[in-house]
Amino acid sequence: MKFLDAARAAAPWMVDLRRQLHRRPELGNQEFETATAVEAALASMGLKPRRLLETAVVCDIEGALPGPTVALRADLDALPLQEETGLPYASEIPGQMHACGHDFHVAGLLGAAKLLAARRDVLPGTVRLLFQPDEEGDGGARRLMEAGCLEGVACVFGAHVRPELPAGQVGLKYGPAYAASNPFVIRIKGRAAHGAEPQLGADALLAGAQIVTALQSIVARRVAPADSAVLTVGTFHAGTACNILAGEAVLEGMLRTFGEEGRRTLVDAVTDLATSIARGMGCEAEVRFTWGYPGIVNHDGPTALVERAAQALLGPEAVIRHTAPLMTTEDFGYFLQAVPGCFYHVGVGCDAPLHSPRFTPDETALPVLAALHAQVAWTALNEGNAG
Ligand code: NI
């Protein structure tokens, strides 16, 4: 399949689509215009998109030949950020911007849909397109999955643009690729007393200080040196006056981990350490974790498949293997907890990082993203499965 040539021919259409989306960025769960634009583009290819959730669009490209179903995903939402690019197609909505490249993802997946829909007569199986809301907020992927978007799906693929990679280069990470997010609050209850009579109270502030220090031993001493995790205590509130022993202290922090096992181990370690130290100092600690995005652990089979597809499409030099996982997170990980798959990167060579008001991805990478999605789906269907 000559997906790259076809994608390059469709590039002006994709660029135009991406700029339309860029002008009208919508925040999580409010992607109504975006979802309507996606439906219109899919309908123009003779496809039949359906809504799942209020702003999610799901669409099957059914091949003429029998075979499995594989899914490709893009995210629809923008960020609450004032754009500063000065581009002619900059955001028309004050305080909202596609600064994470999700407009790029949508246009790229629509480009892939165009390439695959044009080859339905030789397609051995079904490609399911997932346009999901609210990646940046409350896990649109999880809700889309609970609504049944992965029923019958053998494997799932998705991509994110990366500004630090040259335009058109593909980045891959086997195994742990994005961290799980675990924000936490530790509430320490002591007993207030006069600052000059500490023996009559229990100092929650002092216990909190010990806990902050001790928590830093978790990554240093509970995680193997070659593995990764990060723990940050970001706020510490305690006390009301200089001569009163603090009766309460509240710490807020975040823990980023890799894989479900690592996540449980470290969440338990934080809880044990904080409660034990508080108890040892005559206080009580209550530790509350929010179970955030699970992170991404790519499956070996599908990741090797993406590597083969990318090398076939772009040549071996265009594909790099990342050596370290990212500490940021991504709700695509929910899909990978349910079915095998891989989340890969496409370079858009740009000085400004993701989530910057000056993020300006290189649009020459758009046909690469579209062709890579199409090549990955085509390869997965032709190999019968990607597990
Ligand atoms: Ni993003």
TrEMBL record:
<dbReference type="Pfam" id="PF01546">
    <property type="entry name" value="Peptidase_M20"/>
</dbReference>
<dbReference type="InterPro" id="IPR002933">
    <property type="entry name" value="Peptidase_M20"/>
</dbReference>
<feature type="binding site">
    <location>
        <position position="102"/>
    </location>
    <ligand>
        <name>Mn(2+)</name>
    </ligand>
</feature>
<dbReference type="InterPro" id="IPR011650">
    <property type="entry name" value="Peptidase_M20_dimer"/>
</dbReference>
<dbReference type="InterPro" id="IPR036264">
    <property type="entry name" value="Bact_exopeptidase_dim_dom"/>
</dbReference>
<feature type="binding site">
    <location>
        <position position="355"/>
    </location>
    <ligand>
        <name>Mn(2+)</name>
    </ligand>
</feature>
<feature type="domain" description="Peptidase M20 dimerisation">
    <location>
        <begin position="185"/>
        <end position="277"/>
    </location>
</feature>
<dbReference type="GO" id="GO:0046872">
    <property type="term" value="F:metal ion binding"/>
</dbReference>
<keyword id="KW-0464">Manganese</keyword>
<dbReference type="InterPro" id="IPR017439">
    <property type="entry name" value="Amidohydrolase"/>
</dbReference>
<protein>
    <submittedName>
        <fullName>Amidohydrolase</fullName>
    </submittedName>
</protein>
<dbReference type="GO" id="GO:0050118">
    <property type="term" value="F:N-acetyldiaminopimelate deacetylase activity"/>
</dbReference>
<keyword id="KW-0378">Hydrolase</keyword>
<dbReference type="GO" id="GO:0019877">
    <property type="term" value="P:diaminopimelate biosynthetic process"/>
</dbReference>
<feature type="binding site">
    <location>
        <position position="160"/>
    </location>
    <ligand>
        <name>Mn(2+)</name>
    </ligand>
</feature>
<dbReference type="Pfam" id="PF07687">
    <property type="entry name" value="M20_dimer"/>
</dbReference>
<feature type="binding site">
    <location>
        <position position="136"/>
    </location>
    <ligand>
        <name>Mn(2+)</name>
    </ligand>
</feature>
<keyword id="KW-0479">Metal-binding</keyword>
<feature type="binding site">
    <location>
        <position position="100"/>
    </location>
    <ligand>
        <name>Mn(2+)</name>
    </ligand>
</feature>
